[in-house]
Amino acid sequence: MTQAKMVFIGGAGNMAGAVIGGLVASGYPAERIVATGRNEQKLQEFAARTGVLVSTDNAAEVAEADVLVLSVKPQMMRELCEDLASIVSARKPLVITLAAGIPLAAYQRWLGAGVPIVRAMPNTPALVGTGVTGLYAGAGVSDAQKQIATQMAEAVGIALWVDEESGIDQVIAVSGSGPAYYFQFMESMIDAAEKAGMKRADAERLTLQTALGAAKLAVASDVDVAQLKRNVMSPNGTTERAVKRFQEGGLPQLVEQAMSDCAARAAEMAKELDR
Fold this sequence. Notes:
By secondary structure, the protein is an alpha/beta fold. The protein has 12 helices and 8 strands. Helix 8 (178-195) crosses helix 9 (200-220). The longest helix has 23 residues, at 251-273.
């Protein structure tokens, strides 16, 4: 059975490049994937690394696409879509957008009615194969097309479909922006350890390995993270004292407020970009 021809606009960029690499590594035929871009040298280097086809001619490749993946900056998206609208409207390939913040209504105006569109919100750990991608399907997306989008997302991690478009804002608050929350916490731990007298290189090494170990343990465990936390805490011990300080300082409430702010900003951006 011939697999769908995928065309990635902006395909040699970091995120699209990670998805393409994951697809090829998972066995998707490289000859059924095309990455487009403006820089010929960068494209050729990408082709040499991945084995996929490359092109600088968006229109020619879109005219042959079964799946069109849009991976350009949000501020470039309207011009790109309007340039390709006549081809996309006529052929109606599955369109998957990796751009943050732009609602389906905007794509429907720019590309034309009746085009099946999926919004995909990956996060940066997709670059190392441990990503999370939130997915939302617009009207007219078939089950088979949803499976293609799932396959693409799972090539670089896990996939989560949301029932309402607003659910993408919640995905952004948890996993899209989430890596930065952990980086902030790790940075604070490293700084604190250095202030306490540890060499910064040692503090960084221990902090990163501890974060990695905690995440792996949580994924592998059959109990929830609250119980895993309790498992580390002894009554009146060192961990209990540290965790109490976090709680007394309002860390749970601060996390809730920060995530609420993140989701609210995602909704604001959707309105700003829906023009």
